[in-house]
Amino acid sequence: MSQVFMFDALREATNEEMEKDRSVFVLGEDVGHYGGSYKVTKDLHAKYGDLRVLDTPIAENSFMGMAIGAAITGLRPIVEGMNMSFLLLAFNQISNNAGMLRYTSGGNFKIPIVIRGPGGVGRQLGAEHSQRLEAYFQAIPGLKIVACSTPYNAKGLLKSAIRDNNPVIFFEHVLLYNLKDELPNEEYFLPLDKAELVRSGSDVTIVTYSRMRHHVVQAVKEIVNHGYDPEVIDLISLKPLDMDSIAKSLMKTHKLIIVEECMKTGGIAAEIIAQVNDNYFDYLDAPILRLSSQDIPTPYNGKLEKATVIYPQQIIDAVMRIMNSIN
Questions:
Q1: Largest CB tally within 10 Å, which of 16, 145, 196, 203?
Q2: Residue 327 — pLDDT band, cuts 50, 70, 90?
Q3: Nearest-CA neighbor of 17 among 89, 114, 97, 87?
Q4: What does the pLDDT look like over 61-108, one tens digit per residue?
């Protein structure tokens, strides 16, 4: 085992897959000579050269289209969005091409492409750089969506995503790149469609993902001191949602809190609530609580920015509220 930063875990995954398969290549803004805005592609250009680590112009729709075309011909592109917010400029290519071409070609084309990069609310990055695009992409048929949360799952998930024959949107949180974790020295892969049971418990199910996992874990320390035993699930897969894991947990706890950084309207939590109400409503002993970001552009001002997202105390308060509602 070795201690590794998340950005290094992602770089290791990319390097290992590039070494094994010459069809794997990276493209995006500043991924080559500069080594990536968050150093995920550091030193890869020196090792693999211009044709496998391509620096692109600031033209997201163009290089996304080029990557999808390359995937159709049998290559395995990894597209880095310098900031995932910029990929809104390539929304047409991602939705109408990456998501649908395997179906509209009658299965003649595979689209083995990974679209990855930093997103989420950082520290005073401004509204246009603080987007949470998971809700935007959730409705697009044909895409898989993954949100890593630790260096360990980041590496295992990225390796699986690169080998998948379908388009994978791979979300990394801008504030988690310097997170450290122990990684096994041997090769490993993680499934793209399974949630992770972070903590087993019996009183209340807390479902979360990405950076909010760490806020939940911090809150749980205090919740346990209040005498409650929460179960924590990290979704990891945002499309498809692992509803089986959520249902299994609800059969034990009968109470559900969803914590997300996504906006409340049309967010990931909204879809989970809909599916739980459709299929597992009888498991519930209390109304579902949803803790989401405010439905406003993220302010640049630091104090206002902090007020738009969820922090541990709000999670603690939500658990107290749902537990007191049935006592």
A1: 145
A2: low
A3: 114
A4: 999 999 999 999 999 999 999 899 899 999 999 999 999 999 999 999
Q: Contact, 240 vs 275, CB < 8 A?
A: no
Cα-based distances in Å from 314 to 8, 76, 239, 246, 294: 32, 42, 26, 22, 13
16-to-9, 61, 186, 254 alpha-carbon distances in Å: 11, 28, 11, 43
Q: Which residue matches tokens 């390796």?
A: 159
Return the DSSP state at 241: B
Structural domains in the chain plus CATH codes: 2-183 (3.40.50.970), 196-324 (3.40.50.920)
Q: How far apart are CA 322 and CA 288, in angstroms?
A: 9
User: Per-residue pLDDT tens for 191-250?
Assistant: 999 999 999 999 999 999 999 999 999 999 999 999 999 999 999 999 999 999 999 999
Annotated catalytic residue within 12, 17, 129, 172? 129
Joined together, the tokens standing for residue 47 give 């090792």
Out of 29, 60, 80, 231, the active site residue is 60
Alpha-carbon distances of 13 from 25, 152, 188, 211, 324, rounded to whole Å? 12, 11, 10, 20, 45
Axis crossing angle, helix 6-20 with helix 151-163, rounded to the nearest 10? 30
SS3 at position 186: coil
Judge whether 222 counts as a catalytic residue.
no
Instruction: Evaluate whether 79 touches 65 at the Cβ level (below 8 Å).
Output: no
Kindly state the tokens that stand for 7: 């950005």
pTM passes above 0.85: yes
From the CB of residue 323, how many other CB atoms can be counted at a distance below 10 Å?
18
Is 301 buried (19+), middle (13-18) or exposed (0-12) by CB count in 10 A? exposed
